[in-house]
């Protein structure tokens, strides 16, 4: 029932009280399908560049920032503090994928260690 009105069905397959109610339910169902489809398309469009970046052997500072969802200045600070190893090629800093993954693992381990030490029973 779309309109929430009680009705007596003539057949066991009747789902709606009237043709109007059936049309409204159909439109609502199609609207929901369009929303789901549009959401899936948007996710695919957004995730395509990330998948491409993850497949690279070397990343620029901007690309690393995009992958982490932080600003490039955050990546620059990590480089300056020695937490993220880079190579300098023709005046540009590039980050090897291995170094980037190691940085992520270290960050995860540090945050996980502080969270478990804060848990009190």
Outline the structure in words:
Helices cover 62% and strands 9% of the residues. A three-stranded antiparallel sheet has the order 1-3-2. The protein folds into two domains: 43 residues; 51 residues, Multidrug-efflux Transporter Regulator, Chain: A, Domain 2. The chain contains four helices and three strands. The mean pLDDT is 82. With 121 residues, the protein is mainly alpha-helical. Helix 2 crosses helix 3.
The CATH top-level class label of the largest domain: Mainly Alpha
Task: Name the poorly predicted regions.
Answer: none
Strand order of the largest sheet: 1-3-2
Total number of distinct structural domains: 2
| CATH-defined topology of the largest domain | Multidrug-efflux Transporter Regulator, Chain: A, Domain 2
Question: Which architecture of the largest domain per CATH?
Answer: Orthogonal Bundle
Number of strands: 3
Query: What is Rg?
Result: 27 Å
Total count of helical runs of at least 4 residues: 4
SS strand fraction:
5-15%
Report the order of strands and helices: HEHHEEH
Largest sheet entry: 3 strands, antiparallel
The geometry reads as elongated
The helix content is: 55-70%
**What is the CA–CA distance across the termini?**
51 Å
Query: What is the structural class?
Result: mainly alpha
Overall average residue pLDDT: 82
Task: Explain the layout of strands and helices.
Layout: H1 19-54, E1 58-60, H2 61-68, H3 72-80, E2 87-89, E3 92-96, H4 97-118
Antiparallel strand pairs: 1-3, 2-3
């Amino acid at each position: 029932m779309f309109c929430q009105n009680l009705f007596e069905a003539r057949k066991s397959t009747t789902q709606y009280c009237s043709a109007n109610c059936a049309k409204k339910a159909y439109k609502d169902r199609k609207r929901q399908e369009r929303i789901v489809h549009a959401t899936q398309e948007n996710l695919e469009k957004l995730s395509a560049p990330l998948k491409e970046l993850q497949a690279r052997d070397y990343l620029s500072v901007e690309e690393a920032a995009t992958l982490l969802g932080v600003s490039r200045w955050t990546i620059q600070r990590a480089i300056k503090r020695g937490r993220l190893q880079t190579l300098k090629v023709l005046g540009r800093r590039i980050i090897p994928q291995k170094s980037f993954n190691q940085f992520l693992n270290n960050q995860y381990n540090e945050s996980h260690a502080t969270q478990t030490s804060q848990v009190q029973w």
